[in-house]
Amino acid sequence: MSTAKKEYKRITVKTLVDMKANGQKISMLTAYDYTMAKIVDGAGIDVILVGDSASNVMAGHETTLPITLDQMIYHASSVVRAVNRSLVVVDLPFGSYQSDPKEALRSSIRIMKESGGHAVKLEGGKEIKESIKRILHAGIPVMGHLGLTPQSIYKFGTYTVRAKEEAEAEKLLEDAKMLERIGCFAIVLEKIPAELAKKVAESVSIPIIGIGAGPDVDGQVLVVHDMLGMTHEFNPRFLRRYLNLFDDMTEAIAQYVDDVKTQDFPNDSEKY
């Protein structure tokens, strides 16, 4: 068996670095609850991200900004209880780390202690360097996030592709190198040109996980509700839908409603 096909019984932050070195791609999906996490973990995913996208997917907010630290801990706890193999990474929500490195550490400690998560993820580069360093010095693994950073959506004003211009692209590359240098174990690159993502992946030894960043990175991440087709309004170019559960679930529920109203359910075999 080649090293690139090595099977890992339990994924750790070191596993991911080894996977990049071995040329083995990393699979990553979101999950926010026990039932979904049980399925995702059992299917063999490498990393489960308890994303602040729960603000959109689970709570219906327009942005990721409203979700709180307490809510992230609730979702992360539910996921951790389901997982046997995957590495569980938990987003630090907006407002829990940007202003003060001490606050960033307190938030990270709460996530690790109260949820049992394995690592935290923060959005940004040199602007949050001191917060990341404080968290790392406490022994908590950190995943970075560059490119389109949804917590900064009101600054950007749009969800369009980031780092198309040379100055922003150069800053992103330098930020990636800085995140590696201070000790981050991986970086998510969201919605940036594929050529730039390839350059970043080749410039650092830690894994680069892409979402809308092309194929030449070390792994991919999607929101599980999007790739399963449970959502249908969101149609970015980078999204591949592997199922169309929105239609399937709607049809199943409509059939249940009809069966109840026509007294077809429950039938004789379904009663005691």
TrEMBL record:
GO MF, one example: 3-methyl-2-oxobutanoate hydroxymethyltransferase activity
Reaction equations catalysed: (6R)-5,10-methylene-5,6,7,8-tetrahydrofolate + 3-methyl-2-oxobutanoate + H2O = 2-dehydropantoate + (6S)-5,6,7,8-tetrahydrofolate
EC number annotated for this UniProt entry: 2.1.2.11
Pathway info: Cofactor biosynthesis; (R)-pantothenate biosynthesis; (R)-pantoate from 3-methyl-2-oxobutanoate: step 1/2
Transmembrane regions listed in the UniProt entry: none
Subcellular location per the Swiss-Prot or TrEMBL entry: Cytoplasm
Keywords: Cytoplasm, Magnesium, Metal-binding, Methyltransferase, Pantothenate biosynthesis, Transferase
Enzyme active site: E190
Gene Ontology terms: biological process: methylation; pantothenate biosynthetic process
Binding-site positions, 3-methyl-2-oxobutanoate: D52, S53, D91, K121
InterPro entries: Pantoate_hydroxy_MeTrfase, Pyrv/PenolPyrv_kinase-like_dom, Pyrv_kinase-like_dom_sf
Assigned GO CC terms: cytoplasm
Binding site for Mg(2+): D52, D91, E123
Cofactor binding summary note: Binds 1 Mg(2+) ion per subunit.
Needed cofactors: Mg(2+)
Methyltransferase recorded as keyword: yes
Ranges in a coiled coil: none
Assembly information from the UniProt record: Homodecamer; pentamer of dimers.
Family per record: Belongs to the PanB family.
Role played: Catalyzes the reversible reaction in which hydroxymethyl group from 5,10-methylenetetrahydrofolate is transferred onto alpha-ketoisovalerate to form ketopantoate.
Protein name: 3-methyl-2-oxobutanoate hydroxymethyltransferase
Organism per entry: Neotamlana nanhaiensis
